[in-house]
Amino acid sequence: MARKSKEAYASLLKDSVSNVPEYVPGKTASQIAAEYGLDPGSLIKLNANENPLGPPDSAVSAIQNAAKDASLYPTADASNLRKALSGYTGFPVENIAASGPGMDSLIDALNKLFVGEGDEVIVPVPTFTYYGISASAVGGTSVDVDLNEDYSLNTDAVLKAVTDRTKIIWLCSPNNPTGNVVSASDIRKLAEETNAIIFIDEAYVEFSEAGSLSSLIREYDNIVIGRTFSKAFGLAGMRLGYVIAPAWIVSNLLRVLPPFAVSILAEAAAVAAVNDIKYLNAGVSMVRTERKKLIENIRERTPYKVYPSEGNFIIVDVSPKTSKEAVDDFLKKGILIRSCDSFQNIGRNTVRITVGTPEMNEKIMEAFETSENQ
Ligand SMILES: *Cc1c(COP(=O)(O)O)cnc(C)c1O
User: Fold this and answer.
1) Topology at the third CATH level for domain 57-275
2) Which of 44, 173, 181, 325 could form a disulfide with 321 if both were Cys (CB 3.0 to 4.6 A apart)?
3) What DSSP designation does 240 have?
């Protein structure tokens, strides 16, 4: 029998898959260096909200020690990590599920649990784009609802968008890229007035003065909190996330997540990082101090509008420049920042800058003050 062309198999693809939008990631330093003929070691990388302090030393040692066990399977449900997270979060192990790659894997698992062909999820925009991408991969429709002009949540607009097909409302607090938080009273309203799962992405919660919304899980059976090791814990490359959720959701998540979803190395690194309160506190207090300074400096020394932020990043409206022009200006000075063009409902003049070390933030101010047509 002759081999067939790929067209003969293309009809096997599910219809929903052809509609999955692309996720636009922040590029790595070596990708950008190769594109522009630069030395990757000289670039200051503030485009992906990674931890500028590097990984905790304790986690690096733990990875080295665990390497000798790389031929073995880990526990199927990452039990050591769940225990460590129980201590960190104050919730019992029954309320915690951990998985890789990243929190993204738990977003996928939740969509897999709750969203089918023809179902809807609600995504207030601008926000992290992966919620809608992940929902559409399982046949769901992402219903986008605009945030208010100051980027606060428009709870009434969200409630208006709810239908009997709405399965999950995806919220992010502090929100990426806008930096603001959602109030507990807004969450209560959504949890009580809908039959949907209310997901709150707390990837940046450690940096926030407002604190976590996780205590709501003790009151409501439809709230899920998403967390990650990629930001405050400095382990983005290990690709590890977790959720705090009602026990009924955790037990169902464990049924649809692949077994052994946390690698031996990721688990060792994360357990070490969770117990390394010194690293965590040092990074968090640096971000809080530097964020305040950076916002004040941009307000005083540039004509641009900068928004308040509870995350390890800020957004700046660089009008009349476009965000692309500003990204290029910064790149010429060896600094990588992120254009917000790939986020919906934020216009074409906004950039997102990760809060760096004091030295990095001095370089940011220099770049603002010396770029053309300020
Ligand atoms: C960085 C980030 C995550 C974390 O993703 P990982 O897959 O765990 O690296 C999740 N949500 C938001 C809003 C983020 O910015």
Assistant:
1) Aspartate Aminotransferase; domain 2 (3.40.640)
2) 325
3) B
Instruction: Delimit the CATH 3.40.640.10 region(s) of the chain.
Output: 57-275
Report CA(309)–ligand 1 centroid distance (Å).
17
**How high is the mean pLDDT in each 10-residue block of the chain (374 residues)?**
82 82 82 84 94 98 98 94 98 98 98 97 97 96 97 98 98 98 98 98 98 98 98 98 98 96 98 98 98 98 97 98 96 95 94 98 95 61
8 Å CB contact between 200 and 188: no
Burial class (CB in 10 A: 0-12, 13-18, 19+), 315: buried
In the chain, residues under CATH classification 3.90.1150.10 are 22-51+278-373
The reply to whether the predicted model has a pTM over 0.85 is yes
Contact at 8 Å (CB) between 223 and 217? yes
Q: What CA–CA distance (Å, rounded) separates 229 from 312?
A: 14
Residue 134 in contact with ligand 1 by CB distance below 6 A: no
Q: How many CB atoms lie within 10 A of CB 34?
A: 12
| 189 backbone dihedrals φ, ψ, rounded to 5° | -60, -45
Cβ(228) – ligand 1 distance below 6 Å? yes
Q: For ligand 1, is residue 38 a contact (CB within 6 Å)?
A: no
Q: Is 312 in the pocket of ligand 1 (CB under 6 A)?
A: no
171 CA distance to ligand 1 middle (Å): 13
Helix (H) or strand (E) holding 244: strand 241-244
Spatial contact of 109 and 253, defined as CB atoms under 8 Å apart: yes
Highest CATH level, class, for 22-51+278-373: alpha beta
- Determine whether the shortest distance from the Cβ of 103 to ligand 1 is under 6 A: yes
d(CA 235, CA 340): 24
